[in-house]
Amino acid sequence: MKNTIQWPASRLVMALLAAGALGGAGVSAVHLGLAHAQTPPALVAAASPTASAPISGVQAPDFSTITERYGPAVVNISVVGTTRVSNESNDDDDDADAGAQEMPPAIAEFFRRFGGPMPGQRQGPRAQETPTRGQGSGFIVSEDGVILTNAHVVKGAKEVTVKLTDRRELRAKVLGSDPRTDVAVIKVEAKNLPVVKFGRMADLKVGEWVLAIGSPFGFENTVTAGVVSAKGRTLPDDSAVPFIQTDVAINPGNSGGPLFNARGEVVGINSQIYSRTGGYQGVSFAIPVDVAIRIRDQIVATGKVEHARLGVVVQEVNQTLADSFKLDRPEGALVSSVEKGGPAERAGLQPGDVIRQVNGQRIVSSGDLPALIALASPGDKVSIDVWRKGSTEKLQAQLVKVGDKTAKAEGDKPADQGKLGLALRPLQPQEREQIGAESGLLVQDARGAAARAGVQQGDVLLAVNGTSVRSVDQVREAVAKSDKSVALLIQRGEQRIFVPIRLG
Hints:
Blueprint: E1 5-6, H1 10-18, E2 31-34, H2 63-70, E3 74-86, H3 94-101, H4 105-114, E4 127-140, E5 146-149, H5 151-154, E6 159-163, E7 169-178, E8 183-188, E9 197-198, E10 209-214, E11 222-233, E12 243-246, E13 258-261, E14 265-275, E15 284-288, H6 289-302, E16 308-309, E17 312-316, H7 319-324, E18 333-338, H8 343-347, E19 354-358, E20 361-362, H9 368-374, E21 381-388, E22 391-398, E23 400-401, E24 422-426, H10 429-435, E25 441-446, H11 448-453, E26 460-464, E27 467-468, H12 472-481, E28 485-492, E29 495-502
Parallel strand pairs: 1-17, 9-14
Antiparallel strand pairs: 2-14, 3-4, 3-6, 4-5, 5-8, 6-7, 7-8, 10-11, 10-13, 11-12, 12-15, 13-14, 14-15, 16-23, 17-18, 18-19, 19-20, 19-21, 21-22, 24-25, 25-26, 26-27, 26-28, 28-29
């Protein structure tokens, strides 16, 4: 498996969301951006609410004190790299060039300003290397010049220059970067530099004031403020990071800059925004300082980063799934797939288990699980509380390193459609071998409740309420025992996901 913990593949999830199977109210196009000069404007956040009269006797903190004391530890980072661009055009390139011209003017201007190639421009056999420049932010964490920033800020860099608030410019060396968490460590040769102090993610509260300092659009030591909107956010393709969501104004060039709490402690690294337009729309995300410190320590000590892996695919538990599995509330991470030969399988985890706690820490959202695993190290043993068929079980798993190889995952007549609206038949031996399943039923037709939930002809039904099924009678029996809803484990291609279906 590619990641420690993965979401089910997007095509199946999007299809089910569109059908309302996962409780989605609709799917809108969104853009996940990075606030770095080599990308479209992305990292931006809302300006701080103006404080007029205090509420309940509480006033906004004095950010000037934090800025005066820790602003000198925030640096501007300039990056020079190269990209391959075509030095002449021909008829074959007309479509690609047209696509680039259709970009919003602000984004097109952004790429022209910073010297990067337009998205969509073809780089054919006559391409040549052209210098590119980017900007970002960072902050000093040791007096001898160790600096934290984003991995995407220094990606592909051939030359990195750090500018201090006293206007000194120092050449920096990239000690290492980790694309998985988007954290990088660079170093300049200097002594007695100003440094920041760290806070703790556990002490950070939703609604708490926070402050960002960085270099948006090259404007050095720009200060913006807002509040923490949420903790532990999991974004698409970023399941290893439990992001801090804020409404602090973040723009291109803010990437890699610090997020301070009201006590002047760094609690995160500003990294991304979520937007429908590619520009800031009031939602920005920061990497928790706990994650950043762990990555820094590994890079400084060894020059590389190792991530732990459990070997499961999980999904969110909504109310319908909670009813199906007889949970008292819709919480936890529902295991939809277990990697063959991986740590989870060796620990006894099964599809249909709902992970409720890890090392005593409660799993409320499915995103809480990868966030906890991300803070662990390969070889660590974790205690896992799972809900299985109406009762709680305790398991223990020993995590392995991401990249370690494990083994690959593994005749009735068609039934009438019944309550579910499914026509099913058992899989043939060659079909079971093809999909890597020991049991299952092929969906020959889907109507009614199942169709509304997103089940389609050609899907494979693997389990009902966490119990594997081999025959149509087993499905009928499981449905007959269910009151409000059932949870079907569906495989479509190589993707597996639990689909909740309300009965009646």
